[in-house]
């Protein structure tokens, strides 16, 4: 049985929808990207990241416009985002493009939220909706990492474009991590309110 989403649209239990197929394709691209970044095929890795970013926007738009908001889609879309962020961070850290503390900051926030899952399950809730702050944080991080990778591409890294990509990449990283944690703390506070009320 369908429930009603925030803008009056129903959330269905359908599986095979256009947005869900796009989200599944994004999940398939995660290991492809991992191989590309580890083997230093940076141009191809950047293309994969660009495609992933574009389809991340596209699946949400199509879900709303086609009336195909589904429970599966609400799981697949953030899952693909988190996996891309995690794999990209690990790849960049392995290449020594980003420091390990950045990996710890992002992974630590997700581990914090993982601790809320048993609490929500005990209260009879599934995962809570992603907040607007969380969406902006994810957007910032998904833009930050391609810029940091672009700043390392031979022929670009030593020029003005490489410098601009490096500065913009770290700016997006700073805002992204700060907002990522803010969204996480808001999520924890929301879970706490539900626990107190329940």
From TrEMBL:
The keyword Lipid metabolism applies. The keyword Nucleotide-binding does not apply. It is found in: Membrane. InterPro entries: CDP-alcohol_PTase-I, CDP-OH_P_trans, CDP-OH_PTrfase_TM_dom, CDP_ALCOHOL_P_TRANSF_CS, Phosphatidylglycerol_P_synth. The chain crosses the membrane at residues 21-38, 44-63, 75-94, 133-151, 163-183. PROSITE patterns: CDP_ALCOHOL_P_TRANSF (PS00379). Keywords: Lipid biosynthesis, Lipid metabolism, Membrane, Phospholipid biosynthesis, Phospholipid metabolism, Transferase, Transmembrane, Transmembrane helix. It is a multi-pass membrane protein. Gene3D superfamilies: 1.20.120.1760. It comes from the Bacteria. PANTHER family: CDP-DIACYLGLYCEROL--GLYCEROL-3-PHOSPHATE 3-PHOSPHATIDYLTRANSFERASE 1, CHLOROPLASTIC, CDP-DIACYLGLYCEROL--GLYCEROL-3-PHOSPHATE 3-PHOSPHATIDYLTRANSFERASE-RELATED. Belongs to the CDP-alcohol phosphatidyltransferase class-I family. This is CDP-alcohol phosphatidyltransferase family protein.
């Amino acid at each position: 049985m369908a429930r009603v989403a925030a803008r009056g649209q129903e959330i269905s239990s359908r599986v095979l929808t256009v947005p869900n197929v796009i989200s599944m394709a994004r999940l398939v691209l995660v290991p492809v990207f991992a191989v590309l970044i580890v083997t230093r095929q940076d141009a191809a890795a950047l293309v994969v990241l660009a495609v992933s970013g574009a389809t991340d926007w596209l699946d949400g738009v199509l879900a709303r416009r086609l009336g195909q908001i589904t429970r599966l889609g609400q799981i697949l879309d953030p899952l693909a985002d988190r996996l891309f962020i995690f794999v990209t961070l690990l790849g960049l850290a392995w290449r020594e493009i980003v420091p390990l503390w950045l990996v710890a900051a992002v992974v630590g926030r997700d581990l914090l939220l993982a601790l809320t899952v048993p609490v929500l399950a005990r209260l009879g809730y599934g995962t809570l909706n992603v907040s607007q702050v969380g969406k902006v944080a994810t957007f910032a991080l998904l833009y930050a990492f391609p810029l940091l990778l672009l700043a390392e591409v031979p022929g670009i890294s030593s020029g003005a474009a490489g410098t601009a990509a490096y500065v913009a990449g770290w700016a997006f990283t700073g805002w992204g991590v700060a907002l990522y944690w803010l969204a996480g703390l808001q999520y924890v506070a929301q879970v706490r309110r539900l626990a107190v009320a329940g």
